[in-house]
């Protein structure tokens, strides 16, 4: 599998080009299948990209949007990925998109795995676009190397779509797509900014245990496009 690198001079240039690329893929998906799917990640990095996307002309009513992972907090909590996506992406023209969140009323994420899996049936798969981030420890989605669940999350032989994760180096229980579910995507993008993240990626690309740096599991099993700016 391969990593193709798209390096930009600025985040503004990255976001403008990336938004156009995403929309073109989604438009092709709508033309081919009647609907298209976009799976996004949380954090600070994609906020400006989401703002750009929200203003782009597209038949957003035919786009299904969901999350690669979610912190198991209320959707009105500042730590909630859903709250960020609703605030930054599901606005303006993109407000017409169909959003499928992960957080349920279950107190424990483990109890919500079946519900999240059932809800995924409402999302067109393979995903047309998957946007992943990466942590300083090499985690992606909520597949944390520190968690007891990492082996289950990276197990391609299992039929799990979602997994409840309890990281030991980050707050909050999480719900995350598993590696096989992430790989069930037509276009996988790794969206990073800053020299620090590029150094982490370079380390991951040297090879080694996927359980130590889970982003390696994606890079080793899929064609991935890097979208990076300083």
Gist of the model:
The protein is of the alpha/beta class and 230 residues long. It has 8 helices and 10 strands.
- Poorly predicted runs are none
Number of helices: 8
Mean pLDDT: 97
Fraction in helix: 25-40%
CATH class: Alpha Beta
H/E element sequence: EHEHEEHEHEHEEHEHHE
CATH fold naming: Rossmann fold
The Rg value, from CA coordinates, equals 16 Å
Plain-language structure description:
- The chain is 32% helix and 20% strand.
- It has eight helices and ten strands.
- The protein has a single domain, classed as Rossmann fold.
- It is an alpha/beta fold.
- Helix 2 (47-54) links the parallel strand 2 and strand 3.
- The protein has helices at 11-33, 47-54, 81-88, 113-119, 150-154, 179-183, 195-205, 215-221, and strands spanning 3-7, 36-40, 63-67, 69-71, 98-100, 129-132, 162-165, 174-177, 188-193, 224-229.
- The strands form two sheets. It has a seven-stranded parallel sheet with strand order 1-10-9-6-2-3-5, sandwiched between helices. The chain has a three-stranded antiparallel sheet with strand order 4-8-7.
- Helix 1 (11-33) crosses helix 2.
